[in-house]
Design brief:
Blueprint: H1 2-14, H2 16-54, H3 57-61, H4 75-81, H5 84-116, H6 123-135, H7 140-149, H8 157-160, H9 167-179, H10 182-190, H11 195-203, H12 208-224, H13 227-232, H14 241-251, H15 262-267, H16 273-309
Length: 310
Amino acid sequence: MVERSEIMNTAVKSNPKNKIHIGSYAFDAVLVVFMILFSIVMIYPLANVIAISLSSSQMISSGKVTWLPKEITLTGYEIVFGQKTIWIAYLNTVKYAVAYAVVSLFMTSLLAYTLLIPEFVLRKPITIYLLITMFFSGGTVPTYLVVKNLGLMNTMWALVLPGAVTAYNVFVYRAFFRGLSIEIREAAKIDGAGDISILFRIYMPLSKALYATFGLFAVVGMWNSYFNALLYIKDEAKQPIQNVLRSILFTSGATGGTFDGVNQLVQSGKLNPKNVQYATIFATVAPVLMIYPFLQKHFAQGVQVGSVKG
């Protein structure tokens, strides 16, 4: 052992690069261990939700459910997906998310491209105005009054329009557009193309990663949002899925009686309120979990390109 240690020390002293490699391997090992622990912390809550939603009432009440379901039952999911309210909320959320993403990408692109044009005389004042909005916001009450006075209450546009354009997104778009060759725009101008045609036929096709990234941000942001719907949407038939989930979690209580027929099952011991609650939670996040892997490549590419171009 002593001879081996001496040999290692001699090798390190004779070649300093060996010391660097040993330190690099040690750092990689620590990083791997940290990421494994971090992944467990992130995965466990979701795994626990799925396990409880699939477990029997007796196993849940006894606290024996952790990673894996015990005495598997699909009663919670049958109740959740048997409700018309859930499907209506799903359709509402998809409609809101798609509309928000389209409007956000479209309006942000227009503003970012406009600020890119050197001959636009209002470019500097608008840039200063956008910078101010990054430090000061109107607040909830002024925004509510604006939405109400515009007659947008209880409509999809109350959720879509107020946050469709943000200063940060505009600056990222502009930085990305600046990274594209200016000769492309000049050549298109010589060929007689207008600014709208240049934006939609040249800049947008060259910015697919950017649009995929911010489109995903917009969809996920709207999908997870519930507060604006609480303020602006009063019609239950227009509520998004997050508000239905909130209603289930906060009003079902010990009986779980939000849905039809749940009280009888809970009182008979065949169903635990958490079956319905946790099944609704998973049903709410499942669409995003299924869509994200298909957009992950564009998402990572868009984040990298945005950081480089910025």
